[in-house]
Amino acid sequence: MVLAKILGKSWAKIMDFEARLEAVNQSLDLLNIRKRGKGTGRLSIRGIFPPKPGDGDSPKHYEHATGKPATPVGLKIAKAIAQEMEALLVKDNFEWRPYLTGLTH
Question: Where are the domains of the chain?
Fold first, then answer.
């Protein structure tokens, strides 16, 4: 509350979101969520995935845009997507097709 009075409410909201984002990332094992852009921005999921179709044979670092805003609700949705992706990766059952066509959002 003191921080909000000193820096303004909008700065406190940014700090609160950053703390939430850090907590979510600590709960994920293989992936992490990143905020892209200024202001509210958008959320993306980063990690090592099997290659996308036509992108070779070995796993690579990818950043997958969720299309979700960097808000508490967007973070909950991005976390659910990341948890789903992690489960598929652990089971060695991950396929890019649903994520590339937008069927999962």
Answer: 2-100
